[in-house]
Design a protein that fits this description.
The chain is mostly helical and 313 residues long. It is globular. The chain has helices at residues 4-17, 19-25, 30-51, 66-81, 89-101, 106-119, 127-148, 156-179, 181-186, 194-200, 213-238, 243-266, 279-295. The chain contains 13 helices and no strands. Helix 1 (4-17) packs across helix 5 (89-101). It folds into 2 domains: 1-101, no CATH class; 123-313, Farnesyl Diphosphate Synthase (Orthogonal Bundle).
Length: 313
């Protein structure tokens, strides 16, 4: 099958599935953008298959369990990474980007392991427990994207830059969780640390209840605050990327950081509608991202905070 087919599929997936990432991806140089959208297409496909959705929206009835769907994703991923001919565009996309950028095989499987935590309906007692989940579903995506942008481990700076890429994924996921607390609870999922819920006096099964919105707003603000040192760490990594890549990543960082800021500012009304950034906001972040990409070069040697959660070796 022509390489144009998975690319067309990937372009459609990122345009429909994430306007924020689509806007930032346009700032990459053409070759990097191609690989970024191919990787996005596989990640989006896996997420949708586990949730029974299409491009992150709605819910579909399925004759197979989530565990069976995950097993099939693992099998197809294994075959794609082994170089077998693939019929599905999402796995053609994974195969193409993994081959082009020597993405270690364990990273796609680390991503699927994150989805396994959802399939098993895991709960998380502490923030560190939650960050293990955030690593699987988002931090590892940062690592794969770093490979796409030319980052390699094996040197002190390369290893540190990979940590920063993972940190950005963690920050994104913490922000997503804060924004989607009520939506997730309505779907039977709760990512808030159980210890936090107990301190706030919010029963896990009542997170979506309107009467708990003031407490929920305080918990969301706590998540956004927890994300901040990971955003700050990621800025250092931005300064080590090629400029076009740094510009794209800085723009995405600013967009997601603002989502967290909006969640906190909205307080108990944060879940009246889904918080997002406007087109005007995104254009502003594109301009400011260009400046951030330049300014970040002055941060390149700032050491990473040893108190931050660190990805598995």
């Amino acid at each position: 099958m022509s390489a144009a087919v998975p690319l067309a599929h990937a372009d459609a997936a990122i345009t429909a599935g994430s306007k924020s990432f689509a806007a930032a991806a346009r700032l990459f140089d053409p070759a990097t953008r191609r690989s970024a959208v191919l990787l996005y297409a596989w990640c989006r496909h896996c997420d949708d298959v586990i949730d029974g959705q299409v491009l992150g929206h709605g819910a579909l009835l399925s004759r197979t369990s989530a565990a069976d769907r995950l097993a099939r994703l693992e099998d197809l991923t294994r075959r794609a990474l082994a170089g077998e001919p693939m019929a599905e565009p999402a796995f053609q996309a994974l195969q193409a980007v993994a081959t082009a950028h020597a993405i270690p095989d364990h990273l796609p499987f680390d991503h699927l392991a994150g989805f396994r935590l959802d399939v098993e309906e895991r709960t998380y007692r502490t923030l560190d427990d939650l960050l293990v989940y955030c690593y699987g579903v988002a931090g590892v995506v940062g690592l794969m994207m770093a490979h796409v942008m030319g980052v390699r481990g094996g040197t002190p700076e390369g290893d540190d830059t990979l940590h920063r890429a993972c940190d950005l994924g963690l920050a994104f996921q913490l922000t997503n969780i804060a924004r989607d607390l009520v939506e997730d609870a309505a779907a039977g999922r709760c990512y808030l640390p159980l210890a936090w819920l107990e301190e706030a006096g919010v029963p896990r099964r009542e997170v979506a209840a309107t009467r708990h919105r003031p407490a929920l707003a305080r918990l969301a603000a706590r998540l956004v605050a927890a994300a901040e040192p990971y955003y700050a760490s990621a800025e250092v990594g931005v300064g080590r990327l090629p400029y076009r890549s740094a510009w794209a990543v800085a723009t995405a960082l600013r967009v997601y950081r603002q989502i967290g800021t909006k969640v906190v500012a909205a307080g108990p009304d944060a879940w009246v509608g889904r918080i997002s950034t406007s087109k005007a906001d995104k254009l502003g972040h594109v301009a400011a991202g260009a400046a951030m990409a330049l300014a970040a070069r002055r941060l390149k040697r700032r050491p990473r905070d040893p108190a931050l959660w660190t990805r598995p070796a």
